[in-house]
């Protein structure tokens, strides 16, 4: 009998056959029902679902931006942001429930294989030292480990800014919160950055900007959630 990683209820196994043929589930159907996978037509840049031709209005704006238009990033996410996901994210991030991340392994791998080819390097969005100390682990790094045991740290977060309290315009114009680690050589690499959530796309673009300036060929991102 296994336990749901989200609610810790037992997951009933239907029969002997199912335990042999089907990969062991680690999230129960009640919790699964609360989560909404991103499926069907998505924005070719940010991976959000919706009724637009190829790019959503946010990405069209990024594309027209005098500065940011040269740092185009393809993002794909697994789940939509909803109440169920909000609850899980809190549990994951703030209560330090490290084990919970395993619940997303299968879906992370599936989307990685389906949507990304020719990736040379997998990295993750860093936390500041202060936040890392508080939390005990970097959720983005933990998510990266679901798809590779060779995720490489490339960036450092300068300091904890109060990003979430700023509006979109302020966030776009703020200085880069990251710096590149020394002795990083990225010549012609396609880098995949992992993070927990894609909201405005500013975080990913700041990271991508540094990597592209350092010689990376392309930067893409895979996030658990598209809000
Ligand atoms: Zn559950
Ligand atoms: Zn978009």
From TrEMBL:
Which Pfam families does this one have? Answer: Pribosyltran
Record's superkingdom?
A: Bacteria
Alphabetized InterPro entries for the sequence:
ComF/GntX_DNA_util-trans, PRTase-like, PRTase_dom
Q: Which residues form the Phosphoribosyltransferase domain?
A: 137-226
Q: Which family does it belong to?
A: Belongs to the ComF/GntX family.
Its name, as the record gives it, is: ComF family protein
Which organism encodes this protein?
Bacillus mesophilus
Q: What is the lineage of its organism?
A: Bacteria, Bacillati, Bacillota, Bacilli, Bacillales
